[in-house]
Specification:
Blueprint (H helix, E strand, L loop, with lengths): L9 E2 L2 H11 L6 E5 L7 H6 L3 E6 L2 H11 L5 E5 L12 E6 L5 H9 L6 E9 H9 L3 H9 E9 L4 E2 L6 E8 L1
Parallel strand pairs: 2-3, 2-5, 3-4, 5-6
Antiparallel strand pairs: 1-8, 6-9, 7-9
């Protein structure tokens, strides 16, 4: 087994991806963001559900691949940017993404701590322990989020659903504006 020097783990289970999209309820007329879009594993089935999709990716190689893959799909916009700093939409939007573990706290904080209420919902694949901590709402910060959002763990996602497999399981974290 080769070491995974990049630290990147791609969700490769289509049943899990379909369940994320179904859970999100996104469809025509909606705006949805796929943060850390990678090769477009979530972006493609997400676009097939009918919403406008912003595929946010910072890696040059993946950005080129995404542009080639979605060139004929006007409903998909590729944004070459870092998810930590890319401007978030001012209109209502949802998020369906398998986000890098290393930036989970920062991204969730960006999404849930905004004064404007433009986040409608998020279906995120995050590290299992992180999801449980966020959903528990037992810190001042997570309790403040829980007043504005319903936050729950929908299911555990085994490490075997990723290529390469991470050392820990993940979770489908569901966030909905109250």
């Amino acid at each position: 087994m080769h070491p995974n020097r990049s630290g990147v783990h791609f969700l490769s289970s289509y049943p899990v991806i379909r369940s994320l999209i179904r859970s999100s309820g996104v469809g025509p007329g909606d705006l949805v963001i796929d943060f850390g879009a990678g090769p477009g594993t979530i972006t493609a089935p997400l676009a097939a559900a009918g919403p406008r999709v912003l595929a946010i990716e910072r890696d040059d190689r993946f950005v080129r691949e995404l542009h080639r893959r979605f060139a004929a799909q006007p409903s998909v916009r590729i944004v070459h940017a870092d998810l930590r700093t890319v401007p978030l939409p001012s209109r209502d939007f949802s998020v369906v993404a398998s986000i890098p573990y290393a930036v989970s706290t920062l991204l969730v904080r960006r999404l849930l701590s905004r004064p404007r209420r433009s986040l409608v919902g998020a279906d995120l694949v995050v590290e299992w322990g992180f999801a449980r901590r966020i959903a528990a709402g037992d810190t001042k910060e997570t309790a403040s989020w829980a007043r504005r959002f319903d936050i729950r763990v929908a299911r555990r996602i085994p490490a075997s659903c990723f290529r390469p497999a991470p050392r820990v399981d993940s979770a489908h974290l569901v966030i909905r504006r109250r």
